[in-house]
Write a structure and sequence with these properties.
Blueprint lengths: L9 E5 L4 H12 L3 E6 L2 H10 L3 E4 L5 H15 L4 E4 L15 H29 L3 E6 L12 H21 L4 E8 L7 H5 L5 H4 L10 H12 L10 E4 L6
Helix pairs in contact: 1-8, 3-4, 4-5
InterPro entries: NAD(P)-bd_dom_sf (IPR036291), SDR_fam (IPR002347)
Keywords: NADP, Oxidoreductase
Pfam families: adh_short_C2
C-alpha cells in the first residue's frame, strides 16, 4: 500500500510516457510526489501525466535548452525540484560491433550519457544555490557491469552512467545531493527486441536465478526507496535489480 514516502517532493522522470519510466512515475505519484513527465512522445506523455495528475513537458534529453525548460517548469508550477530520474535511454539492435554505424554510436552516447551531463550541469546549480538536498537516479543496466558482445557501445554508455554516478556522489555528497543508479536486467519493454535481437525472451530468462525478467514495478520500487528520505544515507550506489543475473 502507498505510504506517502515522497509526500511534498517534486520529481522529474525522463522517458516517463512508457516502460520503466511510466512505472517509476506511477509509483512516485502513488507515494505522494508531484510528477513531471518528460518525454519525446507528445500523445503518450500527455496521457501519462493526465493519469498521474502530473504535468507533461516534451523533452529531448540530448538538448540543453530542454533541460533548462524542465527546471523553469518545475519552479513555475511547483516552486521546487527534489528528485531527478534519468530514465530515458536508447539502444541499437544487438549485432556485430563492426556493423554499428556512427549515428548509432552517437545516439547511445548522447541519450544515455550526455543527458546525464546536461541534467547535472543545469540542475545541480539550482540545488547548490537554494542549499537544497536533492536526489538524482540514473537508470543504468546490468549491461554496464556484465557486458557481452553485440551491444558493446550500449554497454559502454551504461558503464559510463554508473561511473559518473559514483563520481558525482563523491563530489556532491558534502552538499547533500545524492546520486545513485539502478541497473535493471532485461524486462518486457519496447526495447526488449533490440537487446536480444528477437522477441523471444525465454532463453535469456533461463539465466536469471529468480526465473523472470524485470518489470516496471521492480524498477519503480527500487527508485522510490532511493528517492525517499529512507535512503538519506545512501549515495554512490548502483543497485542491481536483476533477479540474481549478475551474481
Amino acid at each position: 500500500m502507498p505510504s506517502n514516502r515522497l509526500e511534498g517532493k517534486v520529481a522529474v522522470i525522463t522517458g516517463a510516457a512508457s516502460g520503466f519510466g511510466k512505472g517509476i512515475a506511477t509509483k512516485f505519484a502513488q507515494e505522494g510526489a508531484k510528477v513531471i513527465v518528460a518525454d519525446l512522445s507528445q500523445e503518450a506523455g500527455q496521457q501519462a501525466a493526465s493519469e498521474l495528475n502530473g504535468i507533461f513537458i516534451r523533452t529531448d534529453v540530448t538538448k540543453r535548452s530542454d533541460w533548462e525548460a524542465i527546471l523553469a517548469l518545475a519552479l513555475k508550477e511547483y516552486g521546487q525540484l527534489d528528485i531527478v530520474v534519468n530514465n530515458a535511454g536508447a539502444s541499437y539492435s544487438n549485432k556485430a560491433t563492426e556493423g554499428v554505424i556512427e549515428q548509432e554510436f552517437d545516439m547511445v552516447m548522447n541519450v544515455n550519457v550526455k543527458s546525464i551531463y546536461f541534467s547535472t550541469n543545469i540542475l545541480v546549480p539550482y540545488f547548490l544555490k537554494e542549499n537544497r538536498p536533492g536526489s538524482f537516479i540514473q537508470i543504468a543496466s546490468t549491461a554496464g557491469i556484465r557486458p557481452r558482445g553485440g551491444l558493446a557501445w550500449y554497454s559502454a554508455s551504461k558503464g559510463a552512467a554508473i561511473t559518473a554516478t559514483k563520481a558525482l556522489a563523491s563530489e556532491y555528497g558534502p552538499k547533500q545531493i545524492r546520486f545513485n543508479a539502478v541497473s535493471p536486467v532485461v524486462g518486457i519493454t519496447g526495447m526488449t527486441n533490440l537487446f536480444l535481437g528477437s522477441t523471444d525472451i525465454s532463453t535469456f530468462v533461463s539465466t536469471v536465478p529468480l526465473g523472470r525478467p524485470s518489470t516496471p514495478a521492480d524498477i519503480a520500487n527500487a527508485c522510490c526507496y532511493l528517492a525517499s528520505d529512507e535512503a538519506s544515507f545512501i549515495t554512490g550506489v548502483n543497485l542491481e535489480v536483476d533477479g540474481g543475473r549478475c551474481v
